[in-house]
Amino acid sequence: MSDPILAEWQGRIRRAVASGRPLVIRGGGTKDFYGACTVDSTAGVDRLVTTTYAGIVDYDPTELVITARAGTTLAEVERTMRDAGQMLGFEPPHFGAGATLGGAIATGLSGPRRPYAGAARDFVLGVRVIDGRGDDLTFGGRVMKNVAGFDVARLMTGALGTLGIVAEVSLKCLPLPRATATRMFDCGADEAIRWVNEWGGKPLPLSATCWHGGRLAVRLSGAEPAVAAAIGRLGGAPLDADDTFWNAVRDQTHPFFTARIGATGSEISSRALWRLSVRSTAPFSDMGGDQLVEWGGALRWVVGERSEPAKLRAWAQAHGGHATLFRGFDKSAAAFQPLSAPLESIHRRLKASFDPAGVFNRGRLYAAF
Fold first, then answer.
1. Contact 346/353 with Cβ under 8 angstroms?
2. Which fold does the domain 4-175+350-354 belong to in CATH?
3. What per-residue confidence (pLDDT) applies to 41?
4. What is the pTM of this model?
5. What is the mean pLDDT of the chain?
6. Is the Cβ–Cβ distance between 170 and 142 less than 8 Å?
């Protein structure tokens, strides 16, 4: 028997298709800034809020899998898992108290642990989706050995709601580390990038790195003997309250971010915040603005001026990656790196398969669809 909330969603989707009136899919609203357009109430657009469909559906810690509805807050999911000694390994950003599980999957964003544990999509075992025809579909499963439809489930991760409404998600869980410690080092950016790449190739329990303003933070997580041995090997100074530090990096309340977006997440500067995903060994380069380096050198945050999109994107592409306009008042340069013709063709075909009438989050991922 269909859930009454999902039945209502299905009806709204079908009415939107019949009328040609688009739907904006929104969870807790903490990531409204992300993507090619913000989620606003505008003429001719209906908003479908997923927070009414919430709750943990199934969680057996011995199976290392949790299934929850899209509107469930990340805080509730993480609290439940923490009580069982487990965690979401991709350390999803919250950006606010109302962050939902559905929003975490729709944006596909991962936190500081990503290069050492995996990305959000690597933890998705299955999804329940309402597509652009109003059909209730399930891909994947609730156990790690069930991989039927797994690739389709992963497609929904990072699609920003353009392919369908993620109603439920099944995720792989990881045990909480027995011990965690953060060590601080004074060094330049080039030296930090060289060190973290060298350390990444050794049997060290790395779980996060962050360089900014001449200081490198390295988090170690794992068994107590392994963490203690790594501290003895690497040295550095201890960082007290390291959870506070890494949560600030994850949720962009670190001083590097608050200098331009404000402590509450509101935009206070016309300078754009760029996210460059590149090879971890890419050299540190002057981008004309302040930088923060994460993920063992593979993630570069840059505060730049509006005139720099072409320069940033060319540099990122030359170093094996791409540049995203993460936050900014002016998104005329497009939020995401332009697609090549073959990739755009694939995106269009996927959109046509899951949302043939184009009612979901028009323009949120790319302006053309």
1. no
2. 3.30.465
3. 45
4. 0.92
5. 91
6. yes
